[in-house]
Amino acid sequence: MAGQILPARKYVMRDMIRRELMQTVRSDFTLLEIGSWAGLSTSIWAQECQHQSKGTVFCIDTWEASLNVPEIMQKAAKRNRIYKLFQHNMRCSGYENIVFPIKASSDVMHNILKPQSFDLIFIDGDHAHTQFKKDLINYMPLIKDKGIICGDDLEHLPQDIDLGFARNHLEEDYIEDASNNQKYHPGIAVAIQEVFGSVSMKEGFWAMRKIGPEWHKVAF
Ligand SMILES: C[S@@+](CC[C@H](N)C(=O)[O-])C[C@H]1O[C@@H](n2cnc3c(N)ncnc32)[C@H](O)[C@@H]1O
Fold it and tell me: Which residue puts its alpha carbon closest to atom 16 of ligand 1?
């Protein structure tokens, strides 16, 4: 479980960051990731930044597994092991000059960061409804105009699930609705519904672009 991004999703993320970087002439494209774990998603952003010689990736993570995740993750995070693995992965991949880890809680960091200072924010921290919705609301003001907020683990769009069932499991990480065999992260789906209504989604990766005061779907 060192890599938490499904293979098909990686390509959606890579294609999106590739397009965003190609369309910008600035070298100071700034990404912020909440939830890096061992660095798989980080390396998707960093690889493309390195390839196009532009962009910096800041990673906010406590590097302590959330309480609602499988025990195997909780055990792995003990004694700083996942943070060390993250550092090892970044060093061995040659991303140390592109990736800057910030070992802190997302709740603490958003107050310190400047509004409208990131071109892209990827949220993949705690998936419980309360924390994920807090992260969304706290980090949306940090996106620049025409920037993107996006995240992992939206397996089904809110309009395609039984929201009543999901609302009974809001703080759980991952559930199965036996009535229709859907497996998903209820906290993510319900918070997305509450904040945006709906979003662009492909292979479980979701994104929205800020244009002026509004949020618009992104063409994948
Ligand atoms: C699902 S994992 C991230 C997976 C990663 N994006 C990948 O590609 O493998 C969630 C991460 O969020 C971190 N996390 C959970 N709650 C957090 C919080 N409130 N602030 C910062 N990091 C948090 C955990 O330590 C964990 O590393």
Answer: 126
